[in-house]
Amino acid sequence: MDSYLIAKTLHIISSTVLFGFGAGTAWYFWNAHLTRDPATIASVGAMVVRADWIFTGSSGIVQPASGLWLAHLAGYPLNSSWLVVTLLLYGLAFACWAPVVWLQIKAQRLAVAALAEGRPLGADYERTMRLWFALGWPAFLGLIAIFWLMVAKPDLW
Q: Which residues contact 120 (CB under 8 A, 6 or more apart)?
């Protein structure tokens, strides 16, 4: 197998893992949150945080590396408009993802504390989840736009 096919395969697999685990962990954490049950949130939150670090985090490193390798092998200049916008959107997605993981950890810990103290989730938990929800959308929509840019490769300027 030549280098181009290896790079393309790595890029496709890492994008699948990045998007799939990102959407999947968000889905499960949001649904745990909707229960308002500290035990459920604490349990699901622990799994979601681990999955985000292991799968989303590692594929988030492989994705730009394989993308730049693939662009080089295919002969795309790094200043191609679609590639520049893709990299900017990827930066936006990462800038949202990093605090989202921290917010998941915080929400999960707040749920553990509420469970241990036998009390309902408080205002700090609610604020944390509102911010988590708000930051998830730009990352999600940015990745959707990146998929389109990678397929269409439009000349934007």
A: 36, 38, 114
With tokens 């999955």, the residue in question is 51
CA 28 to centroid of chain Cα atoms = 14
One-letter amino acid for residue 41 of the chain: I
DSSP output for 15-55: HHHHHHHHHHHHHHHHHHHHHT-HHHHHHHHHHHHHHIIII
Q: For residue 7, what are its two tokens?
A: 């790079």
pLDDT-based confidence at residue 1 (cuts at 50, 70, 90): confident
**What is the rounded CA–CA span in Å between residue 19 and residue 89?**
14
Calpha distance 151→155 (Å, rounded): 12
What pLDDT sits at residue 22? 93
Q: What type of residue sits at position 132?
A: W
Question: Which residue type, as a one-letter code, is found at position 82?
Answer: W
| 3-class secondary structure, 75 | coil
Tell whether the torsion through CA atoms of 142, 145, 149 and 151 is positive or negative.
positive
**For residue 141, what is the DSSP state?**
H
CB 108 within 8 A of CB 93: no
